[in-house]
Amino acid sequence: MQKLNSSDNAQLFHSFTSGEEQGFDYIYLEFYRPLMFFANKILHDGERAADLVSEQFIKAWERRSTFQTMKHLRAFLYTSTRNAAIDQLRKTKILSLDATAEEFTANEKTAIEYLIQAETYRQVYQAVEQLPPQAREVIRLFYLLGQDYKEIAKRLNLSVNTVRVQKARALRILRNSISIFVMCCMLMSFYL
Q1: In a designed cystine with 100, which of 95, 125, 135, 160 is the match (CB 3.0 to 4.6 A)?
Q2: Mapped to the 3 state alphabet, what secondary structure does the chain carry?
Q3: What top-level class would CATH report for the domain 131-192?
Q4: What is the mean pLDDT of each successive set of 10 residues along the chain, which is 192 residues long?
């Protein structure tokens, strides 16, 4: 995914609200992974979470003309995902109606923490996607696949030292691009 500036984001959001497929693709790519993470934290079932998240995108698409801003759309997606996940738990009788209400009232902080985690996940994923290609691949192989420097060097046909340099470069870029967001999340957590 290429790095988009705020006018590109606004244009793609407008294309979503106007019913253009490109706009839907942008919204889907932007929010699918964090919504899956969020839904799975509640349901503890990846397959059900995937179905539920897909349904929320359909609902958002059907209501696309009502969203005034990206923040409004984001709030709708997270709120409808949370509510649908709670409803699923009720329907499968994992939680009774009273237990569900009590749990989510008593644990409102937990729900907010899940939202922050999901949004953090989205920000990190977005930052990784904006890395230079070689650095991005090194980060994916090292952190997602758990490969060591030698394995990565062999796979990418690079020297071990180049892999180390690419990893350090990528981490420096990620720290710079994510640090402001992380600080805001940390500050928010003190007020919860």
Answers
A1: 95
A2: CCCCCHHHHHHHHHHHHCCCHHHHHHHHHHHHHHHHHHHHHHHCCHHHHHHHHHHHHHHHHHCHHHCCCHHHHHHHHHHHHHHHHHHHHHHCCCCCHHHHHHHHHHCHHHHHHHHHHHHHHHHHHHHHHCCCHHHHHHHHHHHHCCCCHHHHHHHHCCCHHHHHHHHHHHHHHHHHHHHHHHHHHHHHHHCC
A3: mainly alpha
A4: 58 90 91 89 88 94 92 90 86 59 54 70 80 90 85 92 90 79 56 48
